[in-house]
Structures are given as C-alpha cells and as structure tokens.
Amino acid sequence: MSGGAVNGAEEAVDRLTIEAARTEWARIAAEVARANKAYHTEDAPEISDADYDALKRRLQAIEARFPGLASAGSPTQAVGAAPSETFAKVAHRVRMLSLENAFDEAEVREFDDRVRRYLNLPADAPLDYTAEPKIDGLSLSLRYEEGVLVQAATRGDGETGENVTGNARTIADIPERLDGAPGVLEVRGEVYMSHADFAALNARQVEAGAKTFANPRNAAAGSLRQLDAAITAARPLRFFAYAWGELSAPLDGTQKGAIDRLAALGFATNPLTRLCDGPDAVLASYREIEQKRATLGYDIDGVVYKVNDLAYQARLGFRSTTPRWAIAHKFPAELAWTRLEAIDIQVGRTGALSPVARLTPVTVGGVVVSNATLHNEDYIAGRSASGEEIRGGKDIRVGDWVQVYRAGDVIPKIADVDLSQRPEEAVPYVFPTVCPECGSDAVREEGDAVRRCTGGLICPAQAVEKLKHFVSRGAFDIEGLGAKQIEMFFADPDLPIREPADIFTLQARDAANLTKLENRDGFGEKSAGNLFRAIEDRRKIGLGRLIFALGIRHVGESAANLLARNYGSWAAFEAAMTAAAVGEGPEWEALNAIDGVGAVLAASVVNAFHQAAERASIDRLVAHLDVQEAARPQTEGSPVAGKTVVFTGTLEKMTRAEAKARAEALGAKVAGSVSAKTDLVVAGPGAGSKAKQAEALGIEIIDEDAWLRLIGG
Length: 713
Prior knowledge:
alpha+beta
C-alpha cells in the first residue's frame, strides 16, 4: 500500500465516532486473526499479502486515533499465530519477532530519521545498514549446544513455537555439527523452496492425484510441518541463515560480520546481502535486488534493512512486537519484473489469435506467474487500437525484461519494458498472418483489434475451444465432461467428439464400439456410467443456456438470456434468425429493437444461422435436445424493471446465479461492474471495491435482506 493510501485511511479514521471505530476495529481484528491462523498455522492463506498489510495498517490507524481500543489481544501486538497442537511446544529463550514494514522510499527515510533521533546522531553522521532479500518462507530457529544441533522450532507466536527437529535434520542446508561455534548458538533463518523444486513437487502431486500448492511458501511451510519426517525428507527444502537468538558468546560486533561468521560455520547465507552507508545506498540495493528478483530461483517479497552496529542495535532495543533497528521494505504486492522468454499464439473459439507471454516464473500477488496476456499485435507494438502510444511507445520483444502486474486477481499482464536491459539480439516481434493451428489466413478486419483465423470448423483449435465453451459452467455444465475430457475425446479415433451433437450420441456409439469408454485411462465402469447419466440429464436445457453454449461471437451469458427472454422458445428464436437478413427487414429491426442488443451482436447471431456448416451443426445438436421455454420478464409492477443492478460480496440466502436470474426475470439488467449507469448495488458480507465505487458515485447500496424485501421476498 502506498503512503498516499495510508494517509487517506488516517483521514477517514479522523471522521469516525468512537462507536463506529469500535465496530470497525472488532471486525478488522477478527479478519486479521483469521488470516494469521490461515497463514501461519494452517499454511493455507485466504487473502493476499497486500490485503493483509492494508487491514493491519487500517487497524493501526484506528488504534492511533482511539488508543483505548488497543489491547494485549490486538492483532497489532501479535507475532505470527499460536503454535499447532499437533507438535510439541518449544519456548523461545529469546523472542522471535516480526518486522515493521515500509512500502515506499519516504517510509524508509523516515525509519532512518527515527533511528538517528533515538541514537542522538546528527543527519550527516555515518550510519551503516545491511540490506538483504526478504525470503518468502517459514521462519525457523536452530539451537546448537557444543556444536551439535539439539532442537529446531518454528516461530509460532514469537514466544512459543513448534518442535520440528526431526524434520529440520532432513534439510541439506542445515548442518548437524559445527566446528568453532559458541557453546550455545541459536541460529535463525528462513526455510524456503526454489521455483524449480516447487514446479517438480506440484507435478508429482498432480501425478499422484494429490492437492497442489499455490506457491513455494505454502509448499515449504506444509513440508516442514509434516508429522512424518520422511515426507519432509522427500521435499526439497532449503535454508538461509540471517539472524540469531540466544548466544553464549558474541558472533561479531556488527550485523554483517555476524552473518559472515555464520557463513564460515557452514550455513547458507544470502549472497545478495549488502553493507550500505545510509538510506540512499539501501534504496539502491533495493532496486538492484528488485531487478534480480525473477532470476533468483526462489521467492522474495522485499528487502530487509538492519542497523549494522550491534551496539547500536542493543541501544535501540525492541517495541512490543518489532525491533527498532530493522525494517522490511516490501515490494509492490501486485508487481514484479521478470524475463520474457517467448511469445506464443493461442487460437480461441472465435478464431482470435491471442498472443501469450511465456515468462521466467515469478510470484506476483501470492501466485507463481509464468504466463501473461499480451492482448493483440498493437499492444505488442506499443500502441493502442487507435494508434496512440502506450508504454511510451516501447514495443515488447522476446528476451525483454518486463514488469508484470496482477491487480484484482485478473490474468497477469505486462505493464512496462526496461529498455536498458534489452538484449542486443532482440528483434521486433512479427505477428503471424496465418493460423498456427490450421494454416488458414489470419485476417484483421477494419475496426477490429484482433486478427482471426478464417478456417472456421476446419481449425482444430477453434473446434476444441468451442466444445470447451459448450460444456462450461454457464452453458451445458456436464459433470465429468470438462476441458481435459474434451481434449481427450476430440483426439479419440474410436469415440470422437468433434461437435456438440457428438456428445449426445456418445453412449449409443460406445454401446456399438468394441473399445469401450470404461476401458480407457481415467474411466471405469462407474465413471463411464456417471458420465452417460450426466449427459442424459442435460438433454433438457433452458433456452438461455443453449444460446450461450453455441459460442456465437459477442453473445455472452447476459446477452443469451436477454435473447431467450425476448423470443421465449427455440422455435421462435430459430425462425426469427433464419428469416432475418443483416441490415434489412422486419426480423432484423425487431432484433435490434431489443434493449441491450446492438448491430454488432445482432449481425453475429444472424450470420451464425446463415453459415451452412455452423447452421447444420446447430440443427444436428437441437435434434437431441428438449429446449425449455424461457420465462418472459415480469416487468409490470416490477420495482427493478429497466434498472441496472450489480451484486457484490457474499449472498447468504441464494446463490449469485439465482439472484441474477430473479433480477433478470423482473426486467432488471445485471451488470458485473459498477459504473455511472448502475442504479442499485446489492452488497453482501465481504463486499469490496465495487461497494466503495458505488458509494463514491452516490449509487444506492442495499443488503440482501433489503433486496429480497424490494422484489417481494
């Protein structure tokens, strides 16, 4: 979170009454406590680091304004989470604390100012810091007595951790014995997993039919905290040492010297640790490490700065949960730099050629990202569809050092290019003019930002993607027939599915086939029978679902339901589209008169029914179906007829799909985002940015109970 965002939160706090502050504090404190348990104890984080940091900063702002709300039980006073009951407990002789966070350059300089004021040092006095990568892993404390490893413990809540000695002994980076160490030496550091080892582990999990891990940190934490040390031993964990706890004799007089001593004793220490003479130097180190982030082969989420002089550290001491002599400068949670290794072209169900960036894997927003969308050929060239420059006109080339962002949990995208790191051999990317799947011409029509394959049904990529869309959740949603199964059946020479109608002849063809489905990989007698029953259940289908499932360009779920409600039955819809001609005639005019249907969508639907191959495929499909009529909107007396409604947050009395269907049945238009055209927002628990945007625009916001009262229960 930026400093500006923090200031905005503090201004809002100034306007809170004590009652409102108490209510908000309790809500956020519960959220933070829940997040702490999920992250530290269960190794299954529920929210992103950025969201967690924002919640904690908001809590701190409220407590600063209303000190009476702060208590010993506040999450702002807590470190980590309580240790699991599964492991034996270990009391730390010296507390394991967390670090204060900085999110921008100004906060780093403020940290330096605070240290100098506390030590009574003038602004121009020399003050060295160490800067080291902040490893995104699991904190571990190792206790050695007379050079022998006797105990390993997780951080837990800072006071008490979990005994994981047996598991720690399986990690190659952790020495069993030390030569020349103090009699008592407690070494602290981070257990982590490399990107390559993480990918290999997840591949093994998939092969074994086990759950995969979201990111290397989760994998490392879950692996270290196994009851069976043999499982930990089979997982490739690593360890970086960066601190110490109890000592019988000092390691050195400086932070850097002590780290070097740990390295001499046999511990892996981070080679990017730097000695810096002041804030300018630590910020330069931050930028250096950020640039190298994607090439390290393991996850980091920031850079840690520590006062180098250990005598100064002793004078500075500790707050309740953090040392005064250290701070973590976090990377922007949704941004990362990495290398663009290749550009691949994917062909979608409408023939669109979509460029995809293949990246050196990097963790962005808590997720390992190896691919990013490049939108279209204009975006790669550094211009918008209208010809205006984007990214300052910088094009994107294979080999480039690129900035990736993943704001709002959307598909990762490339935001910028660092030209200073562009390889000399990098050449401008030439967008293909033929389809890479079928060799047909790829044409870009006037006014279209996308180049499309003209192969139609002869293009296997389009056929497969249309079938995947056909069985997707908003369409036929056939249990047991997903994207993976579609790819298998499409390539099957004995029981192929090449068009939607083939799905509904699958059981009959299987009965007549010598190579039964139940004998194929992934299927048995029971699963084959389940699939056939699921297909049979979908012969009866609603008109809106059918129209959406056809995969007609520009016809999304909302548009499909809109057409269904206006035409009512398949017979009426099919007859109208057959009779319509683009640009002329009463059926064309009637189609365009539907509120929400424009000329582009109308032309796409009409053309689909007038292309011989596509129309024949539709006719073959419908012959197997019982298409249910759609309910016409009950607009008379409806309080929401003609209004645009947005649902956000968690609905507790109905599913989102049911809420949407009921709203549309009453003549409302349900939108996925808030805009100036929105009339009403229905917000459930957990409502986020949409509710805030609606509030900023002055749009009416109601809860689910009020919505049900409005529409009559």
